[in-house]
Amino acid sequence: MNFSEPFKLSGLLGRFSPDGKCLASCVQYRLVIRDVDTLQILQLYTCLDQIQYIEWSSDSLFVLCAMYKRGIVQVWSLEQPDWHCKIDEGSAGLVASCWSPDGRHILNTTEFHLRITVWSLCTKSVSYIKYPKACQQGIAFTKDGRYMALAERRDCKDFISLFVCSDWQLLRHFDTETQDLFGIEWAPNGCVLAVWDTCLEYKILLYSLDGRLLSTYQAYEWSLGIKSIAWSPSSQFLAIGSYDEKVRILNHVTWKKITEFEHPAIITNPKTIVYTEVEKSPSVETGRLSFPPRALASSLFSTQSKYDISEVPVSLQYVKPVADKANPKIGVGMLAFSPDNCFLATRNDNIPNAVWIWDIQKLKLFVVLEQLCAVQSFQWDPRQPRLAVCTGNGKVYLWSPAGCVSVQVPVEGDFQILSLCWHSSGDSLALLSKDNFCVCYLEREEA
Fold it and tell me: For burial by CB atoms within 10 Å, which of 7, 200, 283, 399 has the most?
């Protein structure tokens, strides 16, 4: 495993291009495009204000930079560095911006969710979509890029509009049986749209492409409901993370629950492997070190850690949620399926130091990783069942069915990894901290 030197970064804005050739990162108001292999700067663009969001177009030819405070979006071309585009929403303001799947239209959501403006880079035409709903996840595109679903709110009722992305024509418009719609997400095969309600109402609805309600699922009533959802890559399973600290798995045939996974504070099953991170002091013979480089020295003398396999029963660190505050840290807030559909990784927010890995074929708990610090982020390798985890310190953790490893990033100074993202090949990993980022290269043998 090799690491690049650290580079400056702001706002955790570092993204690999979809074709895997470039890496975009932001430093205040500058957009830096690097070659993935050499990390040499290919292009340097200067925006009008501090960048708050970036997104690559699907063909990796353009980068969108949003400056929400100014209500401005700037678009930069990799093929023609002199070409640039500025979209100013003016007094309408800007709260969200994204590419359409064709990489030639930009969808801007104005302040107070008054409308969505669709800007065409090719024809310079402008279209407006009224009544977008102010919710966490109100726009969803099918994986093949043909259709867009939009959550709407009008006359105190929730609606879904389905648009054809090629010409932005309305395909279907129907109301949903939700009290206060919170999010929408397409199945990867583009056949089913999941719609879920606010956390005050446990309800998930499944609609077909023609607007028919296929099924409604409600696990319980009169308590905080759905916190997160994830589709399996094959579209066969829908995982629902709830505030009651359970994940429920629905199947794609009957849309009924096939199992539920609990997250107890004490692991008692002897068949579950519990990897516990333990710190170990560095054992370095100082006499043999003749003034090593500073970066090497700082990594040599920093506290190392490794994983021990714990004997069950194992008590995990449980944080009691504060009952009188909004958004309590309770329930399953993070879940993700592995690319081969074999595993599901979850985090229960009131056991923040643990990652749970479930075997989907056997529908049971397979592994628990107990970290020393709270888990900030995890992400699956896009090519194989390998999970990368970061916990806000200078280490990156990798798990695969063969075992798991803790690796100290050999960077000088304070490098606290808050987020990470995989390269599309699975051969490298961008590690993002508050002020810096570096790239971790994994050797082929490790795969």
Answer: 399
Residues with Cβ < 8 Å from 222, sequence gap 6 or more? none
**What is d(CA 195, CA 158) in angstroms, rounded to the nearest whole number?**
11
Whether 247 contacts 241, CB under 8 Å: yes
Cα–Cα distance measured from residue 250 to residue 255, given in angstroms and rounded to the nearest whole number = 5
The superfamily (CATH) of domain 136-262 is YVTN repeat-like/Quinoprotein amine dehydrogenase (2.130.10.10)
For domain 1-130, the CATH superfamily is: YVTN repeat-like/Quinoprotein amine dehydrogenase (2.130.10.10)
Query: How would DSSP label each residue in 347-403?
Result: EETTSTTEEEEEETTTTEEEEEEE-SS---EEEE-SSSS-EEEE-SSSEEEEEETTE
Beta carbons of 370 and 404 less than 8 angstroms apart: no
User: Is there a contact between 235 and 188 (Cβ–Cβ < 8 Å)?
Assistant: yes
Distance CA 340, CA 14 (A): 26
pLDDT for 446: 46
Can you tell me the distance from the alpha carbon of 140 to that of 185, in angstroms, rounded to the nearest whole number? 6
Length of the chain: 447
pLDDT digits (tens, 9 = 90+) for 383-408: 999 999 999 999 999 999 999 999 99
DSSP H or E segment with residue 106: strand 105-109
pLDDT tens-place string over residues 245-258: 999 999 999 999 99
